[in-house]
Amino acid sequence: MTSRIELALNQVTFSYENNRILDRINFALTTGSFNSLIGPNASGKTTLLGCIAGNLTPDTGQIILSGKDSQLRQPKETAQLLAMVPQQFDMPFAFYVREIVAMGRIPHKRFLGRLSQSDNEAIDQAIELTDLSDLQGETLSHLSGGEKQRVALAIALAQEPNVLLLDEPTTHLDLSSQIDILNMVKDLCYAKGMTVLSVMHDINLASRYSDHILVLHKNRILHQGTALEVIAPNMLRDVFAVRSEVHMHDGYPTISLLSSYNSDLGTGQ
Amino acid sequence: MTAGQHPNPSTRPSHFVVLLIATFALFASALLASMVGSVDIPLSDSIAIVLANVGIQTGNPIQSHAHILVDIRIPRVVAAATTGMCLACAGVLYQGVLRNPLADPFVIGASGGAALGALLGMLIAANRILPAEFAITPTLSLIGALLSVWLAYSLSRSRGFTRISSLLLAGFAIGSFTGSLSALLIFINNSMRLRLVQTYTWLLGGVSTNDWITTISTFSLAIITIICSLLIAIHLNALSLGNNSARRLGVDVEKVRLVAILLASMLTGLAVWLSGIVALVGLVIPHSMRMLVGPDHRILIPTSALVGSTFVVITDMVARSAFSPAEIPVGIITSLIGIPVFVLLIRKNLHQYDF
């Protein structure tokens, strides 16, 4: 596999009201790879996605998206290359699912532009991939959490981006929906060469699906590499303050939690 | 819940048909409204007079009818139509930009601010402080609307989030405050106190009759403003996904919000200047049109403009003929219709918005 760099961060630093949230973040993601970002609460994961997505502007450093500093790109140009699925979203007005997914085409259109043939194809494909065909004529208020999550993913897919960011895509989902959505995204990496960066809570899912895992701890990338390289009892102790066993299952490192260092301080030392 | 229980996108009526029917309804209501009043003018006379004015002689209409129609009724109908389309579109824009279906110019205090501005403008104009060419009344009306919205929005916003209950309370506070200031102004100023009934009628939403130049210029200004708002329609759609999501679709959120609020306040200013506070048109019309054509602003804006016009033309006709010879301000009727809709909307949104 030729490894082209699709997204690279170079010394990215971000502060909010004098608190440093991200400290000199460096990493590079290859085209068509599935990457997970893990780390405890408040380690800066969502902020990092916000910076890459252009919702937040880093204090210093560069974000190179598809070969060009994304700060030099117009927001519309960035939106043609990069999409993000937020943790949750809601609509105050009763748009139909298909109309919502069609909003993913906005970066590709002029301001009054009608949907072209290729726009409609992209929308159809996004709806099909996310298995929303039967729900096209629904409004968001009639959908379950998992279905809403799929709508959010469909908007992003309709954008036809090179890079897809996901902010904890499995949070509100039951077990089978978690697997479904991750399989869906993983297929997109292989089939379309989409580069995925996903914030993950579940270490075992991250291990199973990721080509590359980034560990964010205390505002810095502490470890990065394959699941085999990264997921280890020491990392879990240092970053998540848990005592755990890591064993191989199905070829993937899998963790079993034993206890938390916070609740039974000292017993694991 | 299965998909079959809910309408498919294709079941929404065709945009072309909706616009066609709405345009026809507007013309029909305008024709009716110009015939009905303290003096009823028959249809044949109305048509003959209108045709005579564009150079086609078809009959001998009564001369007094011609005067009533051309100098009084038609300008008034145009003023009512302009008021309706301004308020309905202002409602759509405020609702879109604040992501809130209850954001009507009256509810969020914009109308009250515009009325206070317009009153100040009338005072300045009456005292000849500025040259007459400087359209001080509509300008101050616009500034009043803008300032009120800005105040309501800043007061109700905390941690980057606007709660609907806070916005309604802030709107209520600003509406009441500007209302009291307007009343104060009317009572302490001699010339306004002398014309108390007239001024108060205007304040309660009385469509006034103006000369043709004023009527046509406000009408054209309203049309231009509405065309401008159509240019940001697709971006307003994106805003309903939330500011961050819209930004990630390449939308310049700050610019769109600023432009939308400016346009909506301009429309509110124009409507208030023409007809005082005609309450809740901006709530009732966009809400019912959303149910008819869906929330896409590209169709919602023109449909609301047409139906809003028709609504105010008809209610104004009722207002001036129902209790004839007494004329009641149209704002009273729109309030009587609008408040129940407002209450229903609050009930419906109670869960969604976590008051």
Overall description:
Chain A is α/β, with parallel strands linked by helices. Chain A folds into two domains: 5-231, P-loop containing nucleotide triphosphate hydrolases (Rossmann fold), CATH 3.40.50.300; 233-269, no CATH class. Chain A is built from nine helices and twelve strands. In chain A, the strands form three sheets. In chain A, strands 6-7-8-3-9-10 form a six-stranded mixed sheet, with helices on both faces. Chain A is globular. The relative contact order of chain A is 0.15. With 355 residues, chain B is an all-alpha fold. Chain B has a single domain (80-353), classed as Orthogonal Bundle (ABC transporter involved in vitamin B12 uptake, BtuC), CATH 1.10.3470. Chain B is built from 15 helices and two strands. Chain B has helices at residues 15-35, 43-53, 63-98, 110-126, 136-156, 164-188, 190-194, 196-203, 212-231, 233-239, 243-248, 253-275, 281-293, 297-321, 330-353; strands at residues 157-158, 161-162. A two-stranded antiparallel sheet of chain B has the order 1-2. The longest helix of chain B has 36 residues, at 63-98. The two termini of chain B are 27 Å apart. Chains A and B meet through α2, β6 and α3 of A and α10 and α11 of B.
Write the layout of secondary structure elements.
The complex is a heterodimer of chains A (269) and B (355).
Chain A: E1 5-16, E2 19-30, E3 34-38, H1 45-53, E4 60-65, E5 68-69, H2 75-81, E6 82-85, H3 97-102, H4 117-129, H5 145-158, E7 163-167, H6 175-192, E8 195-199, H7 203-209, E9 212-217, E10 220-225, H8 227-230, H9 233-240, E11 242-249, E12 252-260
Parallel strand pairs in A: 3-8, 3-9, 6-7, 7-8
Antiparallel strand pairs in A: 1-2, 1-4, 4-5, 9-10, 11-12
Chain B: H1 15-35, H2 43-53, H3 63-98, H4 110-126, H5 136-156, E1 157-158, E2 161-162, H6 164-188, H7 190-194, H8 196-203, H9 212-231, H10 233-239, H11 243-248, H12 253-275, H13 281-293, H14 297-321, H15 330-353
Antiparallel strand pairs in B: 1-2
